[in-house]
Structure formats: structure tokens, C-alpha cells
Design a protein that fits this description.
The protein has one helix at about 1-20; strands at about 30-35, 40-45, 50-60, 65-75, 80-90, 95-105, 120-125. About 15% of the residues lie in helices and about 45% in strands.
């Protein structure tokens, strides 16, 4: 009886250790706006006639080597009249938390709301 109890305890402990050793799979790669309260991700600078777009790439790159990112600024809040666009191919590897900034030269001022957020749209090709 004592041996059965010891074997049962050993198997239980092994199961607990195995369960504790398992980690969540990494989150898939994701590109999103990098903003916080009072610090918008897309901001227009009238003197430079340019928009700065702040992004962050997070998650597991998996087998990817690069991510194609395009950011477009718009003259209207419905994002139908583009005034500038830029993009690029960003190298990725492993688990990422990479802040990336893009500067968009504009032909005309973009729409800017009361919080100072310029009308922008993000397009990503993984």
C-alpha cells in the first residue's frame, strides 16, 4: 500500500511539474499604433508638412523575415482623400517588441481632430 501511495504521489508531482513547465504559445506577429493618453500615434507637423506615425511590432515572427508596412495620411476623417503615404519593409526575427516610426511627407494638411490625431490608415502585409 505504501508503494502504491508513493508511486501515485510521484506521478501527481510529475504531472504538476509538467503542467507548470508548459508556457503559453507566443502571440502571433502584430503591427499596431503606438499611442497613449495625450500622445497620439499619428501627428501632423505643419512646419515640416509631414505626419509622424508611431507603430509597434509585437509577437512572434515565426518563419517571417520581413513585414511590409504602409501608412497613409488623409485630408478627411473618412480616409478617402490621401495627402501622403510612406512605407517600408521591416526586418523581423524571434519574439518582437519593436517601436517603429514613419514620416509621411504630405501634399496638403491631413485632417486633424480635436485631440491632435491626424487621419491615418495602416496597412500591413505579413
Amino acid at each position: 500500500m505504501r508503494r502504491v501511495l508513493l508511486v501515485a504521489l510521484a506521478l501527481s508531482a510529475t504531472g504538476l511539474v509538467g503542467a507548470c513547465g508548459k508556457s503559453e504559445p507566443p502571440a502571433p506577429l502584430h503591427v499596431t499604433w503606438r499611442e497613449s493618453e495625450g500622445h497620439p500615434a499619428c501627428v501632423y507637423d505643419a512646419q515640416r508638412r509631414a505626419v509622424t506615425a508611431k507603430l509597434v511590432i509585437t509577437g512572434d515572427a515565426g518563419t517571417r523575415k520581413r513585414v511590409a508596412v504602409t501608412v497613409t495620411a488623409y485630408a478627411d476623417e473618412n480616409t478617402s482623400v490621401p495627402v501622403g503615404s510612406t512605407g517600408g519593409s521591416v526586418p523581423v526575427h524571434g519574439t518582437m517588441h519593436l517601436p517603429v516610426d514613419f514620416t509621411i511627407a504630405t501634399t496638403d494638411p491631413p485632417h486633424v481632430d480635436e485631440d491632435g490625431v491626424a487621419a491615418c490608415r495602416l496597412s500591413v502585409r505579413y
